[in-house]
Amino acid sequence: MNTAERWPQFSWFRILYRALGMLPPEQPFPSQLTLEGLSSSAKITFDNHQVPKIEALSATDAYLAQGYLHGRLRGFQMDFYRRMPAGELSELLGPDTVPYDLFMRRLNLRHWAEESRKAWSEEARQAVMAYTTGVNQAFAEHPAPEYRFLKLKPRPWDPLDTLLLTYFLSWSLNSIWTSKWAYDQVGQNPEVYAWLFDRIADTPDITIIPNTGIPMSWGGIGIGSNNWVVSGRHTRSGRPLLANDPHLMPQLPSIWFPVQLQGSHLNVQGVSLPGAPGVIIGQNSHIAWGVTNVEPDCQDLFRIAMEDHTSYQLDNEQATLQIRQEVIRVRGQRDQVVPMEDSHAGPIIHQEADGSRIALHWTGFGPVTTLNALTKLNRAQNWEDFRDALKEWTIPAQNFVYADADGHIGYQLAGVVPLHAGGPHLGVANGNTRSTLASEKLPFDNLPHLFDPEDGIIVTANNAAAGAEGHPFLARNSLGYRARRIRDLLASSGQHDIASFAAIQTDVLSEPLRRLAQLLLVDGDTPEDWRPILKGFDGQARVESPVPTLLYLFAQAAVPTTVENALNRPLFPAVKGTAPGTLPFPDNFWGLMGERLMPLVIQHFQSLNRLEACQRATDRGRAAFGPNLGRMDLGAGSPNPVVSSVHASQSGATYFWRETHPRTR
Question: Where does Ca(2+) bind (predicted)?
Fold first, then answer.
C-alpha cells in the first residue's frame, strides 16, 4: 500500500492547494540543462527507479547541475538542514524552536564553518562554488512550495551553508558527551552505573580488527548502521562485493539523494547529501566504499569553577570568559538578543546552581577538511588514493570499507581521534587547568585499518574498531550482536551475490529477543496469556509479530525503580523542548540506554521484579493496542504518517505531500 492510498488526505490536500494557487503545477524536468555558469549544456536522465544521472562536460559542470537538481527537488530540506546547526530554525518556524536554537548558538558553529572555509582545497572550493551557483538558480526559478505556506522566500544558498551541513550531520553522529554528562549526573550510583556503563556479560566482543582484545566502550547506542565487504573467494562472480545500509532516523524526504555524476575525470554514483556536491557513499569506475559511524572520544566536558560572573582561575593565571551577543530571530515575535559565553576549553553549554560553568570541547571546533577528502575520494583509483583522501577526513569519524576493480578489499577508520595524556575522561573533567585538555591526536597511520585480510571478510556494524591490545581509544560502540550475525551469514556461503547481500540487509534476527522469550516461557511469574504468544518465537523481529513489542514493554517495565527514576531525569532541567525530540540532545537519560536494555534485563533476570514488570507491560500494551496482546504487532499500531519537516510549524503544511522526483520530458 503506498502513502497516497494509506493516507488519502495527502492527495486531496495537494489537489486543493493546487486549485487555490498555493502549489504551482508540476513541471517536467528538462532533459537538457542550460544554466548560467555551465561551459556547455548538461544532460539529465532518470532511470526506472527515478535516480538521476547527470552527464556534463567537466566535473565543475556536473557539480553545478547537481546543485540545481538538489535545489529544485530538495530546496526546503536543504534550508532546514543549514538552519539546524546554525541555530536559525525559529526564524522559519516560530517560538517553538527557540530552545533548540539557543543551544546550537552556544556552539558557535557558524564561526567554525568560516574557519573551515579557509582550509578548503582548490578542488573543493571550485566544487562548492559551482554547486552553489546551481542551487541558487533553482531557488530563484523554482522555490520550494513549503515557502508558500510560510509566506517566505528562500534565502540564497551560501558556500558556507555546505559546511554547516557537515556540522549538522556530524553533531547528530557525535554524542559521547551525553554519556560523560550522564556519568557525572547519575552514574555515580552503582546501580545506575551498572545499567548505563558496566560491561555486560555474554555479549560478543567482536572488533573490526580481529584478535585485539576487549574494547574500551562508554555507553550504549540506540540506532546503527552496517557495512561489509567480501573478497572474490566469497562471491559467485569471483569479484569483491560491498554493501552498506546507513541507518539514520526516518525522514521525509530521506536525508540521502541517489545520483550519478559524469564529467571529464569524474564518474561516480551513489548517495549524495542535499546541500553538498559529490557522492558521500558509492562507487566510481575504480573503487567502491561504504561508511558506518564510529562515535570515538571526540568530545569532552569541563567544569569551570568561577570566581565571579566572568573570571576564573586557569592553572596559576586569571582567565576570563569571552562574551558574544547572539541574535535569535523568531517568526512572529521580536528578536531575542542573548549573551553566550566561550572559555579556553570551548563554549559554555550549561551553568550549574553554584555558578560553575560546563564547557564542551569537540573536534568540530577547528578547521574541518572533510570536503577536501570527499572530492578526492570521488575520483580515487586505488587503495593508496583512497587512504590519501581520508587523511583529510576530520568529522564525523567513520568506518570506511573498500573494494576495487583489481580485486582488493580494505577498511580504514577516518577522522580525528584525540588523545589525553592521563587517559580518556569518563565524566566531566577539571576545567581550571590546561592539563586536562587533549594533548595530541592519534596519527592517521595508527588509526585502525585492514587491507586484504586473510579470511576475505570485513564487517563493521558500529562495533568497536579495535580492542585494548590494538589501537585503544574510548568510543560508544554497539554490543556486537549485529556484527556477529553479519559475519556468520557471510562466512556461511562462498557464493554471495546481490540477492544474498539484500537478504542479509533485511535479516531481522535478534539474539537478545530470542533469549528473553525463552526465559519468560519457563518463568513461573509469566502470565498465562503471554505463553501462547511467546511459544515458538525464533528471535525474528518481524513487523507482523507481537512478540518484539511485548518483550520491549517488559524490558522497560523491569528496570529497577532507582534506575528508572535516574534515567527519567532530563539532561538539563532548565532546558525544556516544546515536544519530545525537539532539542539537539536526548530528552532524558533513557536515551542513553540504547541497545543495552535487553541484554541487561537478561543478565539481571532472576533479581528483577518480574511479576510487577509483566503487569505493567500488560497494562501499557493494552492501553496502546487494545485488549488482545496477540495483536500487539508494530504493523497494528496507530498509523502516524511521516511528513515534511515543516510539520513543526503546525500549519496546514502538515498535510503537504508531493512526489520527490518530477517527470522528465
Answer: 297, 300
Determine contact, residues 282/266, Cβ cutoff 8 Å: no
Per DSSP (E only), the strands in 147-286 are 226-230, 241-245, 257-263, 266-272, 281-284
pLDDT higher than threshold 80 for residue 504: yes
State how beta strands 241-245 and 257-263 pair.
unpaired
404 has binding-site annotation: no
**In a 3-state reduction of DSSP, which class is residue 365?**
coil
- Which of 90, 225, 231, 478 is the catalytic position? 225
Q: For residues 380 and 266, what is the distance between their CA atoms, to the nearest angstrom?
A: 10
What gap in Å lies between CA 356 and CA 351, rounded to an integer? 6
Average confidence (pLDDT) over 227-234: 97
Taking the model in full, what pTM does it have?
0.91
What angle do the packed helices 59-86 and 159-173 form, to 10 degrees? 60
Q: Which domains does the chain have, with CATH numbers?
A: 42-173 (1.10.439.10), 219-254+280-298+366-506 (3.60.20.10), 299-362 (2.30.120.10)
Give the tens place of pLDDT for each residue, 104-132: 999 999 999 999 999 999 999 999 999 99
Summarize pLDDT for 589-627 with one digit per residue, the tens. Answer: 998 898 999 999 999 999 999 999 999 999 999 998 899
406 marked as binding residue: no
Instruction: Please name which of 513, 518, 551, 509 lies closest in space to residue 536, comparing C-alpha atoms.
Output: 518
